[in-house]
Amino acid sequence: METMNRREWALVISLTLVAVFTLCAVPRPQLAASSAEVVRVGTVETPVVVVKPSAMPTRVPTGRAAPARTTPTTLTPTVTRRPAATATPSPTATRTVSPTATPFPFDTRPDLERYIYIDQRSQHMYLFEYGKLLRAIPCSTGAPESDSYTPAWSGEVGPYMGTFFAFGTHQDEAWYLFQSVGGILIHGLPYTLDDSGNKVYKDRDALGERPTSHGCVRIGPEDAVWFTNWNPQGVPVTVSEPYLDEWR
To answer: pTM of the entire structure?
Structure first.
């Protein structure tokens, strides 16, 4: 290629300048609202793209910082298992111990070393030591008739009378109590003697059941021996009322 001369170079430069001035004279079209805005910096125009958000920003009151947007967190509920109910034992009721009621409807005289109570309702003779029952002996008192019943009485056991004979029978181990229509004693069952000299006792079935005597307090022959060995002389004794209406 041949080298251009000075004249040719001048022509090229002139044409270039004309083209540049022509382009500068032509008015440039405005960009659409949605196009990128042109920011003029010095003599160089540099297009700056400003992206507009699709939604208007939330207006924040002056002086308050915009709250940070948080992503909602889905909370998974934690299942707390209740502990199994523990059976609580019911409080044991405290039993109030009542004073021991005496089984007897009368005073057992715990103030006395020894005491005898003859109960004509139950037809028993009770022997106590300091109020505690020592022995309950079935007996039979006077029949509920005007000339044979055993009257109520209190006193002390009198002297030992041994064996005596009355109303056609024998009585052993007799102890004197007091005088009524006749003498009132504690003694063994009445008996007769058979041909061999053996004792045949009467009214044993009445002991502890019903009054059948002539006024004395009858007890079984074995109990009569025990009573004598206990040596009751001088022991306080009470004979209850005869309860005539009940026995009649």
So the answer is: 0.60
